[in-house]
Amino acid sequence: SPSVWGLCMLYGFGGFTGNFVTNLLPTYLQDQRRLSPEAITWIAGLTVGAGGISCILGGYLSDWIIRRTGNRKWGRRLIGLVGFTCAGLASLAVPWVGDVWLLGLVFCASFFFNDLIMGPAWASCADVGERYAGTLSGAMNMMGSLFGAASMTLTGFLLQREYEEVLFILFAGSYALAALSWLLVDVTKPLRSARID
């Protein structure tokens, strides 16, 4: 099913970048940016908070689009495409932002748009998977974890060698692939179980 592949890939590519915030952002702010503990606390806290708000907002917007247009496929896809595209653009800006307040704003924007896709992604698992929604959700989440683990290894390697710009360009590219993966997801074509007579 293209939708299954699409969901797994979009969550994998999204996890490749999103795990940076949940696992390494404070370390990056301390070791690479040499920020004060207070600034690190504020930036990391606000960034995760922005993601929490957008998790709810993304699901609401997706359902609102479906109610307004009657188009279930694009009601799910559109939020994913916009979210990952905007997250990628924000990621591109990180290495070239110097002011602490602006760096915090860029990270908040990036993670806000990253998490905007959460509601539509999990709802798509229910739409596509139907009675196999749990299996599909597990597969999608596993891909996010696998890609995220690979990303953490690569992130450490690149930052130790001071390739910060390369890292965030890779993150933006990963978001672009995640956005394109949404085009494979068609929630109007659910999986069907084989008939057992």
| Number of DSSP strand runs | 0
Shape: globular
Q: What order do the helices and strands follow? A: HHHHHHHH
Any low-confidence stretches, pLDDT <50, length ≥5?
Answer: none
The helix tally amounts to 8
Per-chain topology:
Layout: H1 2-23, H2 25-31, H3 37-69, H4 72-93, H5 100-115, H6 118-129, H7 133-160, H8 164-181
Could you characterize what this model shows?
With 197 residues, the chain is an all-alpha fold. It has eight helices and no strands. The protein is globular. 42% of the residues are buried.
What can be said about this structure in brief?
The chain is mainly α.
Descriptive terms for the model:
197 residues; globular; mainly alpha
